[in-house]
Design a protein that fits this description.
The protein has about 250 residues and is α/β, with parallel strands linked by helices. It has 7 helices and 8 strands; from the N terminus they run αββββαβαβααααββ. The protein has a single domain, classed as Ribonuclease H-like superfamily/Ribonuclease H (Nucleotidyltransferase, domain 5, 2-Layer Sandwich), CATH 3.30.420.10. Helix 2 runs parallel beside helix 3 and helix 4 packs across helix 5.
């Protein structure tokens, strides 16, 4: 089962993909432009469970506190190299400007395009003025379009490799695991990155939207049927049980 953003504009996404994103990516493939995909991930120290089937319920330790480890990243569409700003406080327009400066310092003299969402701290006067001074093009995604932001896939991979079914006793260990993975992924996971971070994007159709809406309407009925089946079943119940804990990116 996959998800579709509830407020997605199918036509706007298709137009953006065909008329703005793809032409710039073709230039990047030809070495005529550098394209980065930018987004922030907020990893929260807490409980996130992995599962296995077990006859008895098992309890495991969970870390205390709700400390956040923030990563503002810019993923190179071609090389898959990552430029980051990290902290344990907040991501604001100040950090976005710091990232722009880092990106400009990595420039090889060809045009730079940054693909990013419409977060207020990114689409503000300070950021847009600095981008203009640095000669960086800001290409804003249509609203509700995480499927068109390549770096979203990297955040999912980060959770899979660093967080799922893992326990960290303190925030230092937790943040180090994430930062170490992001710093070394091009050496340790290059093959997986090449497979995951292809420049093929999920685009939705009106038919898929209608199917999702119909599923929403049917979901309560399906839930009642499933509950009835469970209540009447005489088979031994097998529980999915957490095997360890991890953290969740908020």
């Amino acid at each position: 089962m996959n998800s579709i953003p509830a407020k997605v504009d199918v036509e706007a996404q298709q137009k953006f993909h065909d008329e703005q994103l793809q032409p710039r990516l073709e230039e990047a493939k030809a070495g005529k432009r550098t394209v980065y995909f930018v987004d922030a991930a907020h990893f929260v120290l807490g409980a996130f469970l992995g599962y296995l089937w077990s006859l008895t319920r098992i309890f495991v330790r969970t870390p205390s506190g709700r400390q956040r480890f923030n990563v503002l990243g810019a993923l190179n569409a071609i090389t898959k190299e990552l430029v980051t700003i990290m902290n344990d406080s907040y991501i604001t327009s100040t950090q976005v400007c710091e990232l722009l400066v880092k990106i400009a310092e990595c420039s090889s003299g060809i045009p730079i395009t940054i693909v990013l969402d419409n977060a207020r701290y990114q689409r503000c006067k300070m950021v847009m003025e600095l981008a203009d001074q640095l000669g960086i093009e800001l290409l804003f995604l249509p609203p509700y379009s995480p499927n068109l932001n390549l770096i979203e896939r990297l955040w999912k991979l980060t959770k899979k490799k660093c967080l799922y079914s893992k326990y960290y006793s303190n925030f230092k260990e937790f943040s180090h695991a994430i930062s170490h993975f992001l710093a070394t992924m091009n050496c340790s996971h290059q093959e997986e990155l090449d497979s995951l971070l292809t420049l093929k994007f999920q685009l939705f159709t009106e038919e898929q939207i209608k199917d999702a809406e119909n599923f929403d309407k049917a979901a309560p009925t399906l839930s009642v049927i499933e509950s009835t089946k469970k209540a009447s079943s005489t088979k031994m119940e097998v529980h999915p049980v957490p095997v360890s804990t991890c953290v969740e990116a908020a």
